[in-house]
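[stage:ingest] chain + small molecule (phosphoenolpyruvate)
[stage:ingest] validated
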Amino acid sequence: MEYLIRAILSDGIAYGRIKRINFNYNDILDKYTISDVKNAIDLAISNLDDMKSDNDSLNNYLEIQKMILSDKYLIMNISNLMKDHKAIDSINIAIDEYINEMEKSSSLYLKERVIDLIDIKNHIIHNLIGDNLNQNNDNKEILVLDELFPTILIHRLKNVIGVIAKKGGFTSHSAILCRAEGIPFVLVDDDIKENDVLIDTRRRIIITKPNVLEINRINEIKALEKNYINKAIDHPGYKFYANCSSNSDVKKAMDYGFDGVGLFRTEFIFINNDRPLTIEEQYNIYSNAIKLVKDKPITFRTFDIGDDKKISYIETNKKGVENYYNNPDLFISQINALLSASTNNNKKIKLLFPMIRTINEFNLLKKWVLDICNTNNYLIPSIGMMLETKDAIENINDFSNVDFISIGTNDLTKELYNFDRMTELNNHQLYIDDLLNRITKVIKFSNDNNIDLCLCGELATIKEVALKLYKIGIKDLSVSPQLIKHLNICYKEFISE
Ligand code: PEP
Ligand code: MG
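[stage:predict] done
[stage:export] C-alpha cells:
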C-alpha cells in the first residue's frame, strides 16, 4: 500500500515502526486533584530544563514555555475551574481562554503563539495522566499524529526517526528542528493504518510493508548519507553560506566550513531582549561575529521587524523600511555599532537592507548609511538588498547600483503567490516554474551588471528545488548551519548529473 505525501516539511528517508500519539483524552478516567495538576506542571517545567540544548532558537522557545507554565495565575485559574469541572477539562478551559484571547489579537505574532499554548496544554495533560513524554528506551519510531508540537519531538529526539502528521507549517519550530536533526517530516491526508512504514520524500510516498529491495535501497542511501560529515566538501565555483541569528550560529558555521555568513538576521538580537540594547552591547555582538568569521565575508541584515517579528518595546505593523524612519534612533544606533565594529576590526562588512520595494527606498537608506560613515570615518561597507518584494522583482532593472542581491524566497513567495508563512511551503509545485522564470531574469540582470547574487530563503532547503536553482545558474545558497550536509548532497548530485 502507498500513501501520497501532501507536503514535505523536512526531507529524508526513514523506515521503522509507527508510534501513534493522539490527544483525545475522552476515554480517561479523570480523578485528578489540584495537587496532581501542580505536580504535572512542575514536571513540565523540569522537562523543559532537561531539553535545553545548544540551539538558541529552541532554547528561546523553551524559555517562553517555562514562563507561561510558571505563571501563578494559570494554576489559580485551573484551581478555580476545578470547583465545577474535572482536572483535564479545567486545564483545557484555562488554556483555551488564553488561546481565544490570542486568536482575537490583530497581531500575527500572537496568533502564531497559539500553537505554543496547545503544546503546553498537551504537555501538562500528558504528565498528568502519567504518559510522561520522556522516553527511556532506544526504540526507533516514526511518530504519527495530527500535529507535531515541539515538546513532543524534543522529548523523543533520540528515538524519533520520522514524523507523519496531518497538518503543520514549513516555518514552524517543529519543522525547523526536524530539518536541523535530519528527521523526515511529512504531511498526509490519509489515516495510516499499518504499523511498519517507509517514508521516502524523494518519491513523495509512504510505503507500507516495503519489500526487501526497497529496504536494501534505503539502507544504501542511508550509508551514503553517513559518509557526509558535518563539514563542507570541496565545492569549487559555488559558495556555501550560512543564515545565522546569533554568534553561536556563526561559530557553528565556521566549524562546519561554510564560506561565510550570507545572512545575519540581526533583528533577533533585539527580539530576544525586552529593552533596547546599547550601542556598546550591540558593538560587542557584531565585533565577536566579525572576529569569528576571520577573513570570510559576513553579511549583516539591518533589523527586519514587523509582521511576525515584533520587538516588545517599539510599535511595528508591517515589515519594511518605514520601520527605520519611525525608529531612527534604533537604526542609527545599529549602523554605528555595525560600522564601528567593522572599522575597529579593520574588516569591510556587507550590509543588507530587507524588504526593499523601490530603488528610491534603497538609495535613501544607502545615503543615510554613507552619511553616518563619512561623519565618523568608518570603513565603507558593501551595501546590498534583499530581493523579496513583488515590486522589486518586477522592476529588477532599476537596481543596477546595488552592490549585491540576496533573494529572500520566504517573503517573495508570500507576496507573489499569497502564501502566508505558516502555509506549507510544499505548495511550491504550484508556483515553482513561475518563480524560477522570474529568478532566471534576475540571474541575467546580475550577470549583466556584475552584481553578486545569493539566495537565502527556506526554499533552498528542499533538495529538488536547490538542484533546480543550481541548474538555472544560482551558485551561492545560504542556509542554516545545520544544513551543511544538505548543501554537500545537493552539490555532489548536481555536479554528477
Ligand atoms: C526571506 O524572506 O526569504 C528571508 C530570508 O528573510 P526572513 O525569513 O528573515 O524574512
Ligand atoms: Mg524576508
